[in-house]
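Record type: monomer structure entry
Structure origin: computed from sequence
Chain ID: A
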Amino acid sequence: MELDQLDLFGRPAPYQAHSSTSRAAAAWADASGLAETARGRVLRCIIEHGPVTDEQIADLLAMSPNTQRPRRVELEADGLIVNYGHDAPTRSGRLANRWIAAW
């Protein structure tokens, strides 16, 4: 399996460079389309339901926060979403950022 396959946004799935297991998992995710699908689901959720917090995104998608949050970070880094404000309460009562599509 090639490790340089690109995802939906033209870059390989993220992995920890020091970990051969992480690198293999990233290559598998690229080959299977899993990384692309999770990222696409998060983006669609933000477009359809935004402004939303990470907690809300994970709940709406029934997705683990450990899967959802890295996808949201990638979307922000790609300029596809922006921070709408740090003013939405979480279940624990803390304030969280809300996210919207950048357009």
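Annotation 1: The domain at 20-101 is CATH 1.10.10.10 (Arc Repressor Mutant, subunit A).
Annotation 2: Residues 1-5 have pLDDT under 50 and may be disordered.
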